[in-house]
């Protein structure tokens, strides 16, 4: 399960409804929710956030908040 999948489960949202509202296929929503190697695009994240009526920044922080800069490259 991906961070997006965890978030959607936590919010108890219907993935079919997300698909209808965003135009993303059910298969793509499923892939983004379960496959850790799938890449979530910014436009997809924005559409998903809007379809479940949350602030896109909140969803972005939940999905990507664990990322850190490489300290050696500063």
Walk me through this protein's architecture.
The protein is mainly alpha-helical. The protein has a single domain (3-73), classed as lambda repressor-like DNA-binding domains (434 Repressor (Amino-terminal Domain), Orthogonal Bundle), CATH 1.10.260. The chain is built from 5 helices and no strands. α1 crosses α3 (26-34) and α2 crosses α4 (42-51). The longest helix is centred in the middle third of the chain and has 10 residues, at 42-51. The model has no long low-confidence stretch (mean pLDDT 95).
Gyration radius, in Å: 13 Å
What is the residue-averaged pLDDT? Answer: 95
Unreliable residue runs: none
Number of strands: 0
Tell me, briefly, the overall form: globular
The CATH class, by name, is Mainly Alpha
CATH architecture classification name: Orthogonal Bundle
Helix content: 55-70%
**What class, by secondary structure content?**
mainly alpha
Percent range for β-strand residues: under 5%
Number of helices: 5
Total tally of structural domains: 1
List the helices and strands in order.
Answer: HHHHH
CATH topology: 434 Repressor (Amino-terminal Domain)
Distance between the termini: 32 Å
Main sheet attributes: strand count, strand direction, barrel closure: none
CATH superfamily: lambda repressor-like DNA-binding domains
């Amino acid at each position: 399960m991906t961070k997006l999948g965890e978030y959607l489960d936590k919010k108890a949202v219907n993935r079919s409804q997300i698909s209808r509202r965003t135009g993303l296929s059910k298969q793509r929503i499923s892939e983004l929710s379960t496959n850790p190697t799938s890449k979530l695009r910014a436009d997809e994240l924005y559409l998903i956030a809007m379809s479940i009526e949350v602030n896109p920044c909140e969803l972005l922080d939940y999905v990507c908040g664990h990322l850190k800069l490489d300290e050696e490259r500063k």
